Amino acid sequence: MIELDIRKKLLGAHGGFTLELKLSLREGEFVTLFGESGAGKTTLLRCLAGLSEPDSGYILCNGKPWFSRDARLPAQQRRVGYMFQDYALFPNMSVRGNIEFALRKGTPRQRASELIELMALGELQHRMPNMLSGGQQQRVALARALAAEPRLLLLDEPFSALDHETRLRLQDEVLRLQRRYGLTTVMVSHDVGEVYRLSRRVLMIEHGRIVREGSPEEVFGAGQAGGKFCFAGEVLAIEAADVVFAVTLLVGNQIVRVIAAAEEAHKLEPGARVMLMSKAFNPVLVAC
Amino acid sequence: MSYDWQPIWLTFKLAAIATFILCVIGIPFAWWLAHTRMRAKPVLEALVSMPLVLPPSVLGFYLLLAFSPAHWFGGFVEHIAGLKLAFSFSGLVVASVIFSFPFLVHPVQSGFQNLPRSLSEAAYTLGKGRWQTLRHVLLPNIKPQLLAGAVLAFAHTIGEFGVVLMIGGNLPGQTRVASIAIYDEVEAMNYDAANFYALVLFAVCFAILLAVHIINRKFLARIV
After folding, report:
1. DSSP string, B130-185
2. In the structure, what pLDDT confidence band is assigned to residue A216 with cuts at 50, 70 and 90?
3. Which helix (H) or strand (E) holds A81?
4. What would the mean pLDDT of A143-156 be, rounded to a whole number?
5. DSSP letter for each residue of B112-133
6. What residues in chain B have per-residue pLDDT under 50?
7. Which value, in Å, is the radius of gyration of the alpha carbons in chain A?
């Protein structure tokens, strides 16, 4: 559906680099862009939406140029739903007003009501955005993006400002809507768990280039290890305990302590991202 | 004793017309200034700010020259619109618009600049054009700045003296605004009449500014 090959000079934290990307998106696909901040992920989304321009290259949508050497399709005509990191709800409009404003000409108002019902915003529909919690604002932003009937949905770190519970609930919601409308979706994320839950295809971007690409299992290496259980975590602390080391990890919103051998522990430092895997044991499920 | 209300009426008429024209020209200009990446932007910003620092007599002097039918600008306006600008009410309106320009443009421009860029970008991705975005998204969100700009421009036009004296002269019913009338009455030792004009101006200006502050406080309380 989308063919893209672009180059753009960017200014990073460690000097300039060039964003050089070539990729294609299939209809109905859910793709995640994963990588450190400043790697060029948001710039890619902005180029797709028509909010920034590449220096050279092309972006084609179903063969029609959105950007090429002699063609520019303005953002208004691309029909791209963009969910901003700060949600960008219009402060002067109510929840319903925000959604109705997004309707295309000739769309019956009923679509706004449908979306309000679908996103369970009924009780909030007359509130102003500043009266909403982060999660509620996020739902409004999503409903608004969908109200314009986009062909492509772009999500810029949609869940980063939310607590764990809300995050999980909204991830389900996004997935449900994405499948319902068969929307081609590109999401920027820092969160390995989120990537696993939502997308089948990950592009890992470093310094403006795709360094790895594939399913989350392939990209994050869990498939190679053959682990039965695999969680992404962050090292919080490393303490020496006799001959081994006790490593404290943050997995999801839980703190876990794991024993590590000295040579492994020396490779780690607080803040490092690790995969926590387990093989050959009997998992016990306790209903809760 | 009956007082002549004419200068006061004239003052408010001038301020109202000038403020209206300022809003029509100044708001789009402020929007453009807030978003342009033109190299000449600092030059334009400095030019807009000039009336803040320039003695009114300097501006009045040059306007008087420009308004003269012998000058190309004055001649052009007279030829095209049939308007005589020097020593006339229309000349006062033009001068007031120029003189009060920064008072409207500055608050409105900073209002536009302080809005998150994502607001207009969100509107663009939703298929809305620039005009629709300006009208439905940007302007409603800078209402306090619009109000502040319009009121400052209005009040500043009321308080104008030097420019009006230079280019308007002192024609009763045409260019004799309240600030000139006060000066005139004092010159003629009519302290009573001067006091009347001064008191009316003082009371009205105070009432307007008070209203603005009360409205803005309510408005802000609703947003924050």
Report:
1. HHHHIIIIIGGGGHHHHHHHHHHHHHHHHH--HHHHHHHTT-TTTT--HHHHHHHH
2. confident
3. strand A80-83
4. 91
5. HHHS-HHHHHHHHHTT--HHHH
6. 1, 224
7. 21
Q: What is the ipTM of this complex?
A: 0.79
Q: Which residue has the tokens 């402060």?
A: A91
Helix locations, chain A, DSSP H: 41-49, 95-102, 110-118, 134-147, 164-181, 192-198, 216-220, 222-225, 262-267
Compute the distance between CA of residue A257 and CA of residue A259 in angstroms, rounded to an integer.
7
Distance from the Cα of A233 to chain B's closest Cα (Å) equals 32
How many CB contacts within 8 angstroms connect chain A with chain B? 62
Closest CA of chain B from A189, distance in Å: 19
Distance CA A283, CA B16 (A): 79
Written as one letter, the residue type at B224 is V
Interface of A with B in 121-140 (CB under 8 A): 130
Q: Are B181 and B197 within 8 A, CB to CB? A: yes
pLDDT tens, position by position, B133-161:
999 999 999 998 999 899 989 999 998 88
Total-model pTM: 0.78
Question: What is the Cα–Cα distance from A235 to A248, expressed in whole angstroms?
Answer: 6
pLDDT of residue A214: 87
